[in-house]
Amino acid sequence: MEALNSPSPKPLLATLKGEKQPIPPIWLMRQAGRYLPEYRALREEKGGFLALAMDSDAAAEITLQPIHRFGMDGAILFSDILVVPMALGQDLWFETGEGPRLAPTVQARDVLEGLQATPEVLEPVFGTIRRVAAQLPPQTSFLGFAGSPWTVATYMIAGQGSREQAEARRLAYRDPALMQTLVDRIADCTIDYLLGQIAAGVEAVQLFDSWSGSLSPAQFEQWVIAPTARIVAALHQRAPHVPVIGFPKGAGGKLPAYARETGVDAIGVDETVDPDWAHASLPGDLPVQGNLDPLALIAGGTTLDTAIDRILAAFAERPHVFNLGHGILPDTPIAHVEQLLTRVRRGR
Ligand code: CP3
C-alpha cells in the first residue's frame, strides 16, 4: 500500500486495489433509486421496477443519474440481485408496496431439479453495462454486483423476503445436502454472471450478503464464507485485475474471519459496527467501505456532520471508500446527500 499525495485518475478503483487516497472516494448503495425525482419519473414512464431494470437504455440512464447529479466516484449497475433466480428458472415479480416474489419456492429437491435455467434473461443487463461504459466520465469507476449465494437462497426458498430468514435456516438444518446443491447452483450462475458483467465493462464487483447476520458461526462458515471464497477464487483466476468487495451485512464479530477466509479485496461494513473496532480488527491494508447510518443521512445537520467525521477519523490511516452502512432510504433529502459529499470532499 502506498499513500498518495495526489488522487489517482480513478480514485475508487485505486482504493479498492489498496491505494489509500488523500480524500476517500464515495458512492452510496442504492444511489439510483426512489429518493431521486428523475428516477421516480422514469419508473412511472416504464411501469415498474423490473421493466426498468430489464430495459437496457432506461437502466443505463438510471445508473448514470447519481453520477450526473452528484459526481459520485462510483457508478453501480442498476439491476437487482434477484435476476440470478430468474436465470435459474424462477418467476420473479414485484408486488407494489411490498417487495419481490419468486415462484415456485425451492423447498424440495424435485422443485430445484425441475427449474429450467434461462441464462439469456441476463442479456439486457450486459446491454446496460455496455451503454454505461461508453458514457461514463473517465474518473468514475464502474461497479457490477450480485447477491451472495446465501442471501439469494433465502429469497429462492421463501419466495419473498422473510423474517430472520427462518425458512432458509430451517431448510439448511433439515436438508443440508439440498441446501448445498442450491448454494452451489447459485454460486456457479453468479460466477458466470459476474464474468459476463466484467466482459461487458464493469471494473469491480460487489457481493451483497444482506442476510448473513442471522447465521450461527458454524453456519456462517458453511453458507457464507465457503461459497463466497469459491466465487472470489474463480473471479481472481479469470479476471485477476478486478477487485471484489464483500458486504456481509450484520456479520459483526464475524467480519475478521470473513476478511481472512474469503479472499475479498475490500470489505463493506454496516452501520452497526463501531468504525474504530473495524479499523483495529481488520487487516491494516484491507480497503474498508462504509459505514454511515442511512438514518443519520436523513437526520442531516450537525448529527450528520459528527457521524461523517467519526468515520473519516476511524479509517484515516487505511484505504477507505466512504459509503452508507446499507442502502439509501427513499425519504432521504437530496440536500443531505449534497452536505455529505461536501463534507467528505473538504479540501478536494
Ligand atoms: O445499489 C444500487 O443502487 C444498485 C441496484 C440495486 C438494487 N437492488 C435496485 C433496487 C442493488 C445492488 C440491489 C440489491 C438488492 N436487492 C439486495 C441486497 C442489498 C440490500 O438492499 O439488502 C436485496 C436484498 C434485493 C432484493 C430487493 N429488491 C428487495 C427486497 C426489494 C424491495 C424493497 C425495496 O427497497 O423496494 C427490491 C427492489 C429494488 N431493487 C429497488 C431498487 C432501486 C426499489 C424498486 C422501486 O420500488 O423502484
From TrEMBL:
Pathway: Porphyrin-containing compound metabolism; protoporphyrin-IX biosynthesis; coproporphyrinogen-III from 5-aminolevulinate: step 4/4. Its main location: cytoplasm. The keyword Cytoplasm applies. The keyword Cytoplasm applies. Residues 25-34, 143-159 form the Uroporphyrinogen decarboxylase (URO-D) domain. CDD domains: URO-D (cd00717). It is found in: Cytoplasm. This is Uroporphyrinogen decarboxylase. It comes from Sphingomonas psychrotolerans.
